């Protein structure tokens, strides 16, 4: 929705563990320790609002109930048994039919969505994990060792803190600040090569005249001796 419609101001949700961390049941959520969804919303500057009132939680539960009650029946009727076919059915048929039946027209005209200008949603909506690069320019993650190639930033990233991104298509990216330093396929093979630019040696400058004169004077003294 963000990619097609743009950014919105706030997301009002229940306090499920994928939205918020609640240290103790029944108490306030911890905004200082965001979940993956909380981190993504913060990156996009979208306020994530936890629902505390029974009325707000009731609305979300009724919405979930509608989906959980209708969608399995629709999938069963059409003989859909694979994840790919289910996602295609959602995109091409179910969501449009659901919105047409249950959506309510807004009380005011216009839209509050803001056009999206950033191009890194694949990084924002990924599972992110921080790691420190080892001395051999590798990072360990998911029972694998990931080799970082030399890049234009520096010869080695040893000792630097990088971010590992698990994408929705099971591929992996590694970033150092805003820089992409590694991209890998779902089976761990490098999918791009980070090229290192050739190092240009500085040009030799001509020696100043006084330095050249001193050099000739020294040679003359050596011959005289």
Summarize the structure.
The chain is α+β, with helices and mostly antiparallel strands. It is built from six helices and eight strands; from the N terminus they run H-E-H-E-H-H-H-E-E-E-E-E-E-H. It has helices at residues 2-5, 36-43, 54-77, 83-102, 121-124, 209-224, and strands spanning 10-13, 47-50, 127-132, 138-141, 144-147, 161-166, 172-176, 179-184.
Description:
The chain is an alpha+beta fold and 225 residues long. It folds into two domains: 101 residues, no CATH class; 64 residues, no CATH class. Helix content is 34%, strand content 17%. It is built from six helices and eight strands, in the order H-E-H-E-H-H-H-E-E-E-E-E-E-H. A four-stranded antiparallel β-sheet has the order 3-6-7-8, with no helix packed on it. A two-stranded parallel sheet has the order 1-2. A hairpin with a 2-residue loop joins strand 4 and strand 5. The protein is globular, with a radius of gyration of 29 Å.
What's the arrangement of secondary structure elements?
Elements: H1 2-5, E1 10-13, H2 36-43, E2 47-50, H3 54-77, H4 83-102, H5 121-124, E3 127-132, E4 138-141, E5 144-147, E6 161-166, E7 172-176, E8 179-184, H6 209-224
Parallel strand pairs: 1-2
Antiparallel strand pairs: 3-6, 4-5, 6-7, 7-8
Quaternary state of the chains: single chain
Helix residue percentage: 25-40%
- For the biggest β-sheet, the strand order reads 3-6-7-8
Mean of the pLDDT scores? 82
* Poorly predicted residue ranges: 195-219
Radius of gyration: 29 Å
Sheet with the most strands?
4 strands, antiparallel
Whole-number total of structural domains: 2
Strand content: 15-25%
How does the helix and strand content classify structurally? Answer: alpha+beta
Give the CA-CA distance, first to last residue.
88 Å
What is the count of DSSP helices, taking H or I runs of 4+ residues?
Answer: 6
Number of strands: 8
Tell me, briefly, the overall form. globular
Order of helices and strands: HEHEHHHEEEEEEH
């Amino acid at each position: 929705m963000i990619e097609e419609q743009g950014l919105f101001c706030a997301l009002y949700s229940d306090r499920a563990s994928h939205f918020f961390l609640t240290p103790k049941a029944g108490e306030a959520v911890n905004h200082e320790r965001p979940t993956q969804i909380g981190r993504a919303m913060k990156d996009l500057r979208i306020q994530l609002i936890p629902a505390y009132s029974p009325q707000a939680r009731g609305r979300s539960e009724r919405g979930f109930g509608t989906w959980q009650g209708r969608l399995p029946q629709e999938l069963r009727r059409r003989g859909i048994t694979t994840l790919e076919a289910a996602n295609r059915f959602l995109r091409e048929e179910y969501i449009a039919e659901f919105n047409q039946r249950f959506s309510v027209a807004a009380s005011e005209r216009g839209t509050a969505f803001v056009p999206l200008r950033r191009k890194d949603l694949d990084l924002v909506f990924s599972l992110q994990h921080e790691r420190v690069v080892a001395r051999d320019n590798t990072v360990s993650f998911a029972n694998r060792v990931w080799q970082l190639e030399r890049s234009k930033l520096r010869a080695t990233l040893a000792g630097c803190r990088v971010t590992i991104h698990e994408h929705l298509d099971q591929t992996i990216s590694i970033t150092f600040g805003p820089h992409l330093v590694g991209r890998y396929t779902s089976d761990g093979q490098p999918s791009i090569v980070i090229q290192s630019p050739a190092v240009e040696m500085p040009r030799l400058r001509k020696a100043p005249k006084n330095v050249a004169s001193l050099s000739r004077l020294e040679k003359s003294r050596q011959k005289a001796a």
